[in-house]
Amino acid sequence: MKLTRRGVIQAAAALGVAQTLGCATTPKAGPGPEAENPKGKPLSILILGGTRFLGPALVERAKERGHTLTLFNRGKTNPGLFPDVEKLQGDRDPNKGEGLKALQGRKWDVVIDTSGYFPRLVKASAELLAPNVGQYVFISSISVYKELTKANLDESAPVATIDAAAPEEITEQSYGAFKALCEQAAEAALPGRALNIRPGYIVGPDDGSDRFTYWPLRVARGGEVLAPGDGEDPVQFIDARDLAAFIIRNVERRTMGVFNVTGPTKPIKMRTFLESVREVTGGDARFTWVETPFLEQQKPTPIPEIPIWAARTGAEGGLGRVSIERALQAGLTIRPLADTVRDTLAWFHTLPPERQDKQRAGIPADRERELLAAWHQAKGTGTAKAAE
Ligand SMILES: NC(=O)c1ccc[n+]([C@@H]2O[C@H](COP(=O)([O-])OP(=O)(O)OC[C@H]3O[C@@H](n4cnc5c(N)ncnc54)[C@H](OP(=O)(O)O)[C@@H]3O)[C@@H](O)[C@H]2O)c1
């Protein structure tokens, strides 16, 4: 399956990429709200999930801010994580096992739902918890938008639609539309008390998808690097630790509503992104910019999987430039890209060697060589050197 950008934004989490969190780095505080937002009353926070990628970043941030936590999950993903945190076992699906029973009769200030993909399940937890929580935070996605070709999509842009009774399967078509219905289910169960967060690519240490990680690893390896497009395509992503800091900050402020949450704070293009990565990794990487139409003609897969990037003229050209104005107004801060690159590489190198050898995203080395050779032939540039 060729993964479109909409598809890859959901793929790691929704398709259940397993991760090794045993070697998780200790998240650092973001450039943070502490000065402007001194610690208030500690909150009791329930996370529906909490143990794969964004969840742990939220736990770390909430702990730093003095809040108390409860995690609700099936006990399958990284069960040894956070031995000091209360854990309740069950299933998001009320029809499976004990379902949501463990949540009955308990009260929390806030619930953060990182694991909702289907409206039936979000409705079930939101309705059950509505009398017993002050706020429901639902982690949605920027994939909710209907017209992904458009630049500057803001929170008022139309969302994709799907029949609520459609089969509960995550596909490239269904993911965003289901997420939109999940947002609506949260808002319907807790009118005026829902905070719907629409992140772009979530990246950084503990990201088991390797989509962002591909670039620091590839650039660090050096030599001629296939760089997609003309260097002018915008890219957006957010370090999970910055996303967690934004969420916890707005939980503390009791912010409600809908927010696109991605970075960086100032737009960045693919060329600047790759050059910034090289500044961190050092080495002799040389970028050969391979035009989008050439990539589109490739067979058997038009545009081999090139993570994070999307052509601004393509079907999902809006996804690298959604509006984050609202989030910035609500205190979104983004750490320097160099920190994310450095920390991601450091984390990746702590993984077992066999895992490091099996990268989960990016262009395999032999395919990249083939594509570069074909590109040079088409352009008559002959050698990699000539393309620098
Ligand atoms: N990755 C991206 O680039 C990206 C971009 C945009 C939006 N998002 C969204 O961000 C969220 C982040 O996901 P995450 O995986 O990092 O969150 P997480 O909270 O770190 O991990 C997912 C948690 O859900 C639990 N879980 C899964 N199925 C469950 C079930 N049926 N019942 C109870 N618990 C269940 C898992 O534990 P058990 O397996 O032990 O149950 C795990 O603790 C997702 O909603 C995703 O759609 C991701």
Characterization of this structure:
The protein is α/β, with parallel strands linked by helices and 388 residues long. It has a domain at 5-203 and 238-263 and 316-338: Rossmann fold (3-Layer(aba) Sandwich), CATH 3.40.50.720. The protein contains 13 helices and 12 strands. Residues 1-38 have low confidence and may be disordered. NADP nicotinamide-adenine-dinucleotide phosphate binds at residues 9-10, 12-14, 49-56, 73-77, 91-93, 114-115, 139, 141, 199, 201-202.
How would you state the average pLDDT, rounded?
90
Task: Please tell me the CATH architecture of one domain by its name.
Answer: 3-Layer(aba) Sandwich
Q: Strand order across the biggest sheet?
A: 3-2-1-4-5-6-10
Structure summary, number of beta strands: 12
InterPro entries: Epimerase_deHydtase, Lipid_A_modif_metabolic_enz, NAD(P)-bd_dom_sf, TAT_signal
Organism: Corallococcus praedator
Protein name: NAD-dependent epimerase/dehydratase family protein
Keywords:
binds NADP nicotinamide-adenine-dinucleotide phosphate, Rossmann fold, single chain, 388 residues, disordered N terminus, seven-stranded parallel β-sheet
Compose a concise summary of this entry:
The chain has 388 residues and is α/β, with parallel strands linked by helices. The protein has helices spanning 5-14, 54-64, 119-129, 174-189, 214-221, 240-252, 270-281, 292-296, 325-329, 337-348, 353-356, 365-379, 384-387, and strands at residues 44-48, 68-73, 86-89, 108-113, 133-139, 194-199, 202-203, 224-228, 234-239, 257-261, 263-269, 286-290.
